[in-house]
Amino acid sequence: MNTTRTLQVPDATSVAMDYLKNDAEDHGELVTLNVGPSHPATHGVLRLKLVIDGEEIVSCDPIIGYLHRGMEKIAENCHYNQYVAYTDRFDYLAPMSNNIAYACAVEKLMGWELPERGQAIRVLCCELSRISSCFLGTGVYAMDTGAMTAFLYAFEEKEKVHNLYEQICGARFTSSYTRIGGMTRDLPKGIEKQILEFCDSALRTVDEMEKLLLHNKIFIDRLVGVGVITKQMALDCGMTGNNLRASGVKRDLRKTNPYLGYEKYEFDVPVAEEGDCYARFQVRMEEIRQSVRIIRQVIATLPGGPICVQTDKGILPDKKDAMQNIEELIRQFMVTTQSVNAPVGQVYFAAENPKGELGFFLDSKGGGIANRLKMRSPSYCTLSILPKLLPGHLVSDVGAILGSFDFVQGECDR
Amino acid sequence: MEHNVLASILANGCDSACCGMWFYLIVTILKLVLVFAVILAFVVLSVWIERRVAGWIQDRPGPNRAGIPLHLFQRFGSKEEQPCKKLLHFFGVPQDCWIAKLFRWLKLDREIPTFGLMQPCLDGAKLFLKQELTPSYVRKVYFTLAPMLVLGPPLVAAAVIPFASGFSTPLGDVNMCVANLGIGPLWIFAISGLSVYGLTLAGWSSNSKYPFLGGLRATAQLISYEVAMGLSIIPLLMMFGTLNLQSIVQYQADNGWTLLPLWGEGLTWERWFMMLPMLISFVVFVTCVFAEANRTPFDMAECETDLVGGYHSEYSSMKFASFFMGEYAAMVIGSALVVTLFLGGWSIGFGADAALHNWCDWFAVICQFVMFLIKLVAFIFFFVWVRWTLPRFRWDQVMKLGWLVFLEVTVANIFLTAAIIYFIN
Questions:
Q1: Is the pLDDT of residue A20 over 60?
Q2: For A395, which of B207, B299, B306 is closest by C-beta distance?
Q3: What is the DSSP letter of B406?
Q4: Which residues of B touch A211 (CB under 8 A)?
Q5: Is the model's pLDDT at A21 over the cut of 50?
Q6: Which of B53, B133, B180, B310 would bridge with B302, disulfide CB 3.0–4.6 Å?
Q7: Counting one residue from A and one from B, how many pairs have CB atoms under 8 Å apart?
Q8: CA dist A323 to A306, A311, A356, Å?
Q9: B172 neighbors B310 (Cβ within 8 angstroms)
Q10: A93 close to A409: Cβ distance less than 8 angstroms
Q11: What is the SS3 assignment for B119?
């Protein structure tokens, strides 16, 4: 007698592939669209889980952490000086600013004040990296809206900043320029002239990009009124930097609590009231102009003298002295093996970075290693607004809105 | 009629009718091959123009590394160490004079320069040799059909575009247009409208969300811009009074191009008035050609910043290359149509056509063909220029522009033209 036995093959993939039968109901259906982690619009490894109804976004769930490297934990295992090299990797579009912000935080813990020349050089480097970051932010934004050429114009200027970095600190990208209590080296001779030349070309490019984009009907139509962040929303999410200023809050740490002698320089804080993508773009362009203004003032008033803290034993001695003098040799040995000897205590230092307020909270139990380091990264706070902001926009606006935030995943995920 | 011809062949062997038919067939086949070769060559050339012009606009070299290196010949047995240097030495040119410097600047001492023209060819070879990856979850028949449907229509549509005037031989007249149809533009719209099926099928059969959205966008966009495109040339047809593209170009050769009516009767005030609707038509038509060719600022279907690759996200190797070539072929055909309708097609202008024809038919045809190609290249350059200058529209803005602006403008333009023609005559 013939009987039929049905064998069931447990096959998880075939079950998972059931959706291919396309037998779902044919209208009124929401679709989940996965954007990222590797997607042209998400500048790094951000992932968005969008639920869309046609082309309209119903809900958005940003998923971060794809670039998490345990930066805060690493800080508990290495000397203050060693950690400088890790700070390059936070906001890798403006490595100098991170170096400087971190060094300033530790110096605040130590209670050190840099000599005038050291401060001026730091301001110079900060503003150079701000220009580089803002150029990349605006350029990539232009590419997100389809204007490839403006992106390459911007990138050319960014390339020039990297050439200057290379002369200043020896590396194009991962600068690691600062040490606790100073810099690795003084500015090379003749760099001032090159920086001034770069300033001129940067301003030319800004004008060119404004002509290409800001007065372009297509660009205006795409950005005006898109991704509007009100003052309240921005403050609620802890947005800082350009994104906050584009929403009409005039908050710039360089003005409100000046560090590194920023109070000596004259510059405006660009603020826009609208809070839309176009406003953020404009603010960023204006930021480049103000940075150029600061750089010109710094170079005009660049003082001479030492670049490192002179009073304390926490910094490396001159190489020549270390070779001839036993005291200096011991000091060199102590600094390289144990770094600075920090007092017990807690400090919070925040710097106005290109992306916003980058804060370092340091908890020290003494010695050369931090007990705990907590970062306040601007991109993290900026991205937290996405679930509130994106619903109601179209899929095409995702690129425009993400680009307008100018965020960096390295800093967000740490 | 064909029966008659066949009957006469059977009855009389090779008489004049038979000769005429064979002549017609052979000439048509020759024209077909010529048009096909020119279009495909132009697809490659327009890729090259795209890259070169993009490089030029963006302050970078563009493709310039695909020359034929001279050391390649040594591998195949050439004993020559420095051919360029020896050549200069042979003619007694010193190594530091400007000729030698020019030679070095052109890299003639290292390679046979091709000005980057080899780049698209090598790209094609690369795509041809790449692994053909068909994902397991696609609908295979439609997935394979889609690239063909994209590449085919532009090549077919090229049949009605006249690329030179005609000349007569003892065996019969030759019309330099593969199919001299009386419905030229309609044929092009009908055929190129088919390519929307390719994009839709590609998007749908990929069974993936990004291509699906891209396919949907492509469908809506192409269909809505076809309306405006069709309506925008009606004023022209009212002026020309014919749908035959060869006659349209002949009219322009005699009376001045649509956008440059300087010869013929001269620039009378009636013609000045006619320029206004023609200009409106030109702007709308060119914009629609951009939209139909799926190029920035209208590349909604493959808008990379939100849809990754759009409808061709899941395609690889030659299938992807078909989409790629289809897009460029559509661009070439679109340019050819704009040139034919608005910029005088093959006509050299300023009354030179008639003069050349009086002098020598053959030479006139060759000159006109070259003129047509020059205009085509110029317009392709314009295409590329726009692409690398403007940002991209947003999806809903494209639809608004199509239905709320262009449709109204073109309809109003038709009435305007009609009014002008009525009052002038």
A1: no
A2: B306
A3: I
A4: none
A5: no
A6: B310
A7: 85
A8: 20, 21, 43
A9: no
A10: no
A11: helix
